Amino acid sequence: MRLWRQLLVLGAVLAASVNAAGQTPDDWRADLASLAAELERRHPNLYHTTSRDAFQAALQALAARAATDTREQMVFGLARVLKTIGEGHTGLFPAFD
Question: pTM for the full model?
Fold first, then answer.
């Protein structure tokens, strides 16, 4: 499968997860860990703009806020973390609820 199709599928999976109602903090943490693993596995050059340590630290900081942040804050935080990748093909584009 071509890379752009793989990334599109990954984006669809993430969008379905973000749109799921009733996410618990543990759900968010699991989704963030899964996202990080899949991005590392699929992205051809994930750390071309930011370091692995900085990216992981941003994800961990977001995961730490999962128990206190609202859903909207988590979605915005996730979009901000994905923006650090530094290219237009990987990001979060949430659909309307």
Answer: 0.73
